[in-house]
Design brief:
By secondary structure, the protein is of the alpha/beta class. It has three domains: about 10-75, Arc Repressor Mutant, subunit A; about 95-170 and about 270-300, Periplasmic binding protein-like II (D-Maltodextrin-Binding Protein, domain 2, 3-Layer(aba) Sandwich), CATH 3.40.190.10; about 170-270, 3-Layer(aba) Sandwich (D-Maltodextrin-Binding Protein, domain 2). It is about 40% helix and about 20% strand. The protein has helices at about 10-20, 25-30, 35-50, 65-90, 105, 110-120, 135-140, 205-215, 230-235, 250-255, 285-300; strands at about 55, 60, 95-100, 125-130, 150, 165-170, 170-175, 195-200, 225, 245, 260, 270-280. The strands form three sheets. Strands 4-3-5-12-6 form a five-stranded mixed beta sheet, sandwiched between helices. It has a five-stranded mixed beta sheet with strand order 9-8-10-7-11. A two-stranded antiparallel sheet has the order 1-2. A hairpin with a 2-residue loop joins strand 1 (about 55) and strand 2 (about 60). Helix 1 crosses helix 3 (about 35-50) and helix 1 (about 10-20) packs across helix 4 (about 65-90). It is globular and about 70 Å long. The termini are far apart.
């Protein structure tokens, strides 16, 4: 029987501490003071009669009891979020909704066509598309704010507890404005002579880019501008001599219409899987199945590899 002394705030605090791996950061996320979040955690541990977290200078870590409890705590938060979403749908005159997170690698390439195809086959479903960084979207998926995420596979640690279905592979490209001086004599070792727009550490392609540059003997880049903002870089690069390192899907339209030009570097080792991410414990809804149908249709139309066919 559930102890009635356990409140929602206890579960929320524990889960956030585990996500942030810090009481201080968790307190900031929940708009609490650090003493308040420490008190809430102590209350939960007292109710359960077990220590859930061990604390050290390096931060916090789950005990064996904590690992068991937080697994079910995360599921309960996700279920509650789904219940709240269900109530909202009823309030919207019963119209079904599907909320999909779109990472930069798909937001500007296949996602518009997927949205068009989905609207045709599911006209009674309201599609909501949410853009953001990999970490931010995964957090929203875990708590049930998103039904699906479409984009590149993230790091192993980030993907714990998330189901990933590969759809196709995509490489990283180096792009510049038309007329860039490096286009005359393409030489990867010279990219440090110009400003480089670089993926930040939380970007899915960051480790791929790091390995690629190391493999080709490219050292520290003295003038790096780090961003995941495609909206910024699409305007900035044509106005400058900057070299933009980015997933090919993000700049597919710009490369096709000639607004940007790909430097002829062999980046095949940066190829990585793009696919659908979901919570594995959830039953696939009718809306998700229809979205998958629309997605597969677009993948075939774009000539991408679709392992489901």
């Amino acid at each position: 029987m559930i102890d009635r002394r356990i409140k929602f705030r206890h579960i929320q605090c524990l889960v956030e501490i585990c996500r942030q791996k810090s009481l201080k950061l968790a307190a900031e996320k929940l708009f609490l003071t650090q003493p308040a979040i420490s008190k809430t955690l102590k209350e939960l541990e007292d109710i359960l009669g077990a220590e859930l977290l061990s604390r050290s200078r390096a931060g916090v870590a789950l005990t064996k009891e904590g690992e068991v409890f937080v697994h079910f705590a995360e599921m309960s938060l996700a279920s509650l979020q789904q219940g709240m979403a269900g109530v909202e749908r009823i309030g919207a005159q019963g119209k079904a909704t599907l909320t999909v997170g779109a990472l930069p690698s798909v937001a500007a390439s296949i996602m518009p066509d997927v949205a068009l195809a989905f609207t045709e086959i599911a006209p009674n479903t309201q599609l909501e598309i949410v853009a953001g960084s990999h970490g931010a979207l995964i957090d929203q998926l875990r708590i049930g704010s998103l039904d699906l995420i479409l984009g590149r596979l993230g790091r192993t640690a980030l993907m714990q507890g998330i189901s990933f279905t590969q759809l196709y592979e995509e490489k990283v490209v180096f792009v510049v404005r038309s007329g860039h001086p490096l286009l005359d004599t393409p030489d990867l070792s010279r990219i440090g002579e110009w400003q480089v727009i670089y993926p930040p550490k939380d970007a899915a392609i960051h480790p791929l880019v790091e390995r690629f540059l190391i493999a080709h003997g490219v050292g520290e880049l003295p003038n790096r501008l780090e961003t995941v903002s495609g909206a910024f870089a699409r305007v900035y690069v044509p106005k400058s001599d900057a070299i933009w390192i980015i997933s090919a899907g993000v700049v597919a339209n710009e490369l096709q219409n000639g607004h940007l030009v790909e430097l002829p570097f062999d980046t095949h080792i940066t190829r990585g899987p793009v696919g659908l991410m979901r919570r594995p414990q959830d039953i696939t809804s009718t809306q998700e199945q229809l979205f998958q149908i629309a997605l597969n249709k677009v993948i075939r139309a774009h000539g991408l590899v679709d392992p489901t066919t």
